[in-house]
Each structure stands twice: as C-alpha cells, then as structure tokens.
Design brief:
It is a peripheral membrane protein. One of its GO terms (cellular component) is ATP-binding cassette (ABC) transporter complex. Belongs to the ABC transporter superfamily. This protein is an alpha+beta fold and 378 residues long. It contains eight helices and 20 strands. It has two domains: 225 residues, P-loop containing nucleotide triphosphate hydrolases (Rossmann fold), CATH 3.40.50; 118 residues, OB fold (Dihydrolipoamide Acetyltransferase, E2P). α2 runs parallel beside α4. The strands form four sheets. The chain has a six-stranded mixed beta sheet, with helices on both faces. It has a five-stranded antiparallel beta sheet with strand order 13-12-11-14-20. Bound molecules: adenosine-5'-triphosphate. Adenosine-5'-triphosphate binds next to β2 and α1.
C-alpha cells in the first residue's frame, strides 16, 4: 500500500448469483482525488460503487479506508455519501428537510441541523428554495438538493452514480463545473460513475476504465486518451477507425510493411508489446489529415491511399467516409473532398495506436458497409 492511499480496493470480486460482475479489482485512491469510473452499460461500475459504499458485499477482496479494513462495516459507519442518478429525494419533504435528512437520522440537534442546512443551501445556490417541495424544482435544482443532502453529513468520500445524466445538456455542463469546484474546495475524495467519456475527461484527476468487470486501464485523462493500453480502451476513447496492417518490431520502432493501400512506415513502439505479423491500427477521425492523392504530406506517421465515399458537415470540420482497401474509415478535414476523389490519409505516429490482432476472435475480413446485405461469398 502506498503511504498516502486513503481508500483502497484489494482483489475485489463480486457476483450476483451465478453472474460474475467484478474480477480482480485493485484500486488505490488518494485523499481529495476525483476518480471517474468509466465503462459501457453493464460493465460493473455501479456495483463497484456499491461495494465501496458497503451496500454490496464483495465475494472476495478487501476494502480499506485510512488503512483500516472496512469490508464488513455497514454503509453508515464508513463516512461515505452516495448521490444517485435519480436524485431519490423525498417528495413529501421540503428542500431543507431533504438536505437535513441525514443529520436527523444521526440525531443531530435541531439548531445545528438548521445551521448546516442553511450553509449547504448557500453553498449550492439554493437560498430561498428551502420551503419548496422537489416537484416545484427544476432538474438541476433537484440534483443540487440531492448533492446537498450528501454533503450535509460532511462525508469523507462522495460516491456519485451518474448524477448528471438526467440533466439537459446545458445544465449538465454547469453542474459538472460546480460539482468539481466544490469537491476541490472541500477536499472531498470523490468516485464518480459515468459512461460519458467527455464528462470523465473534464472532471476527473484519474479515469478508471472498466471492461466486463475488470480494470482495462487507469490513468490521467491525458494518459488514457493518448496512450490507450488496449484496443478496447482505444475504441472506447474514440479511436474507432480500424485498419489491418502487417509489420515487425525493429529496435524501438515498429516497421509497417507497405501494402496495396498503404506506404511503408516506421512508428515508435512506445512500450507496446507488439510481435511480428498482423496488427490492428486504430486512430480517431480528427487525428487524420486528408490530401489529394500524391500531395506532399508531413514526415513521420503512416499514409493510407483511399477514395472518398461521402462527406458531411457536422460543424467545424468536414467529416469524410473514405474507403481504404476493403475497409472504411472516417477522417476530418477543413475543406470538403468530393465522393470519388482519390486521397491520401496521413495519421501522425503519436495518434496511430497499434495492437496485435486478437487471436481468440479472428476478425472477419473487412467488409464494405455498402456491400449488399446477404451476399454469399463465392
Ligand atoms: N441486484 C442484481 N442482481 C443480479 N444482477 C445484477 C444486479 N445488479 C446488477 N446486476 C448485473 O450486474 C451487471 C453489472 O451491473 P452494474 O449496474 O454494476 O453495471 P453498470 O456498469 O453500472 O451499468 P449501467 O451503466 O447500465 O448502470 C449487469 O449485468 C447487471 O445486469
């Protein structure tokens, strides 16, 4: 265990009946850190949060808080507060009563509850709304009340289960910002569950990406975005273009062999354990640069030869669908290329993520998205 570790999960596994939901989860969180648990639906994010809170008992492993084993402590003795996506406010109680609820359960004196509720209302911009019922509040205000109820009890750890997902896009951005500022100011340790990549990127000190109940990668937003450790993480972080290449390691670089649709290239291995043979190359549409076939392109990186199939304007840049060999990729450019244009697509070395092709599920030969459905191969 590291010296300043505040909250630690050690070999956590969890299952519901016969369904294994979490496996081998090791995670150490520092005091005051904001950690986002990111992953697709059903990967076990909420279950992990419930293990932290004490609502679900792990089938293996330990939860430690301040280096003390709390695995079998009930939720109310862990010093944690949980905020849910659904607010879970008491509809018959006023804003002030909802915020003071946890304090009443703890039998705090009335005058102290009133003082604390007033303080929390001011902190969250809810002054003047204390006598309203939740039904008379906007979504953003309700979410702030739910947050206020969690903060009123002065938790050491704030567990947030998609608390912003019910808010409309604009309010979400401002509550996101408020929540992060508040967490920093109060120095609370926060674990935030989300499936929204951008939300995790802008709010968290550290992102933990879960895949089918295991940690696929953890690191700062910049690390997981720019140095994805697996094809899964790369795809999850937006590098959805995929091209199949071959090559072999040469010293600290990987030599990409020239093919019918790509030039030969050398890119830094950057610590990736690649072998010789087929690799999957992944990259983001915005990382690519498109030029008319045969134009001069920047040095370094990889160049793919293709034909534009379609162009659309989602705003800011033109997004192109380009056929490269048998595959189709997306790439952005400041100006539009026309369908049928022959183009070269350049991807800088640092934005080209190479992974050994998985052996367990051999990929089907790439099929054009425009191919006729149901066509039987000859
Ligand atoms: N009480 C339960 N009993 C049985 N299975 C459950 C229970 N709660 C969750 N599961 C299952 O455990 C798996 C993980 O669920 P969990 O809610 O942790 O996922 P999640 O990543 O938070 O998903 P989402 O983003 O959709 O909320 C899912 O397959 C889910 O169906």
């Amino acid at each position: 265990m590291q010296q300043n570790t505040f909250l630690e999960l050690d070999g956590i596994a969890c299952r519901y009946g016969a369904t294994q939901v979490l496996n081998d989860i090791d995670l150490a969180i520092d005091k005051g850190e904001f950690v986002a648990l990111l992953g697709s639906s059903g990967c076990g994010k909420t279950t992990l949060l419930r293990v932290l809170a004490g609502f679900v008992a792990p089938t293996a492993g330990r939860v430690q808080l301040r280096q003390k084993d709390v695995t079998s402590l009930p939720p109310d003795r862990r010093g944690v507060s949980l905020v849910f996506q659904s607010y879970a406010l008491w509809p018959h109680m006023t804003v002030a009563q909802n915020i003071g609820y946890g304090l009443r359960l703890r039998r705090v004196a009335k005058a102290e509850i009133a003082r604390r509720v007033g303080e929390v209302q001011s902190m969250l911009g809810l002054d003047g709304l204390g006598e309203r019922k939740p039904a008379a509040l906007s979504g953003g205000q309700r979410q702030r009340v739910a947050l206020g109820r969690a903060l009123a009890v002065d938790p050491e750890i704030l567990l947030l289960d998609e608390p912003l997902s019910n808010l409309d896009a604009r309010i979400r951005l401002s509550v996101r910002h408020e929540l992060r500022a508040l967490q920093r100011r109060l120095g609370i340790t926060a674990v935030h569950v989300t499936h929204d990549r951008e939300e995790a990127m802008v709010m968290a000190d550290r992102i933990v990406i879960l895949d089918a109940g295991r940690i696929a990668q953890q690191g700062t937003p910049e690390e997981v975005y720019n140095r994805p450790a697996s094809a899964f993480v790369a795809a999850f972080m937006g590098a959805e273009n995929i091209l199949q290449l071959t090559g072999s390691p040469e010293g600290d670089r990987f030599a990409i062999a020239a093919g019918p649709a790509n030039a030969g290239a050398h890119v830094p291995l950057a610590g990736r354990p690649l072998g010789s043979g087929p690799v999957d190359a992944r990259f983001r549409p915005e990382a690519a640069r498109i030029a008319a076939a045969g134009s001069a392109l920047p040095e370094g990186g990889a160049v793919f030869h293709g034909t534009v199939l379609a162009a659309s304007y989602p705003g800011g840049v033109w997004r192109h669908t380009i056929r490269i060999g048998e595959a189709e990729i997306m790439a952005d450019a400041a100006q539009a290329f026309a369908p049928g244009d022959r183009v070269d697509v350049h991807v800088p070395a640092e934005a080209l993520f190479l992974f050994d092709r998985p052996q367990t599920h051999p990929p089907v030969a790439p099929v054009s998205r425009t191919a006729t459905a149901g066509k039987v191969p000859a």
